[in-house]
Design a protein that fits this description.
The protein has about 300 residues and is α/β, with parallel strands linked by helices. It has one domain: Alpha/Beta hydrolase fold, catalytic domain (Rossmann fold), CATH 3.40.50. The chain is about 35% helix and about 15% strand. It contains ten helices and eight strands. The termini are far apart. The relative contact order is 0.15.
Length: about 300
């Protein structure tokens, strides 16, 4: 992809983003080692900190406001294509929710493919959801006001979790907040997209990631039920959604399609299409006014969805 296709306010940052061959297993394992030692770790906003708690299968990172919580809870799920990544990536994003909404945020460290294909990671997210529900009142959170949220692969997990919770019944998320979510393995199966070489996350890596997660070929007519959010037919009854994505992101078309299907199913949707912005631009250009304005719009939408 030509750098001139990127929004001028993001170009200098986009030029510094390396293209990692995560479709090669050896490099994937190397990336995990680097993440373990703090690669791409972000710092919390001033005055906000966190603590980690180990559960049976997963680990949850908890961020709390200094004062009395507002009653809102956010279950956050990190990105990394379902194959890499860490809660360290999102300390700043999670602390934004604490600062802007007075929320308590629980960020999930979940098991990754290919060692742990579907449904291991989703089960970990469910474990944290149940724990959050059980601990909510003690942490100053209204159990009915917990949202599920995530970026990229985390958006996939958050969406899949919302689907699973709707199927099993009980307390539902108050909303689903999805940053450039990874929703459809059929995108990966379209090899014509390989020619574009999208910034940050390209289709060759996308195909490897989905294949490892699904334990089979992408685009197949036979996939594990509940593994691919865009494959779900019935979307009625899902929580209201916010979806934000740049229009040069590999996932843009699948996001547009999913948003339309939600709307057609009677689900309230706020869709923020960001001109000339690549995948996860809110991470690598997080110090810019461009990203600050994006998050300002996001929180305005969240307040609307939660009626606050």
């Amino acid at each position: 992809m030509n750098i001139e296709q990127v929004n001028p306010q993001l170009q200098s940052y986009a030029k510094k983003v390396p293209s990692f061959p995560l479709y090669r297993l050896w490099f994937l394992k190397l990336s995990r080692i680097l993440f373990r030692f703090g690669l791409a770790k972000t710092e919390c906003l001033d005055g906000i900190s966190y603590s980690d708690k180990k559960l049976a299968q997963s680990t949850v990172r908890v961020y709390k406001p200094k004062g009395t919580p507002s009653g809102i809870g956010v279950l956050w799920i990190h990105g990394g294509g379902l194959i890499t990544g860490s809660p360290n990536l999102d300390n700043k994003t999670c602390s934004r929710y604490v600062k802007e909404l007075g929320a308590v945020v629980c960020s999930v460290k979940y098991r990754l493919a290919p060692e742990h294909p579907f449904p291991a990671g989703l089960n970990d997210c469910m474990e944290v959801w149940k724990w959050f529900q059980e601990q909510a009142v003690q942490m100053g959170v209204d159990p009915t006001r917990i949202v599920v949220a995530g970026q990229s692969a985390g958006g996939c997990m958050a969406t899949s979790l919302a689907h699973k919770l709707m199927d099993i019944g009980g307390q539902q998320p108050a909303a689903q907040l999805l940053f450039c979510p990874m929703l459809d393995d059929r995108t990966a199966a379209d090899t014509e997209l390989d020619k574009i070489d999208h910034l940050v996350w390209n289709n060759r890596t996308n195909r490897a990631a989905w294949s490892w997660y699904l334990g089979g070929v992408t685009g197949s007519s036979s996939i594990p039920e509940g593994a691919v959010p865009a494959r779900r037919e019935n979307l009625r009854g899902l929580p209201p959604a916010w979806i934000g994505i740049g229009d040069i992101d590999l996932f843009y078309n699948e996001n547009v399609d999913y948003a339309k299907r939600l709307e057609n199913s009677g689900v309230m949707v706020e869709f923020d299409s960001v001109p000339m912005a690549p995948h996860t631009f809110e991470n690598f250009a997080d110090s810019t006014r461009f990203v600050d304005e994006y998050f300002k719009r996001h929180f305005e939408s969240v307040r609307k969805l939660l009626s606050i």
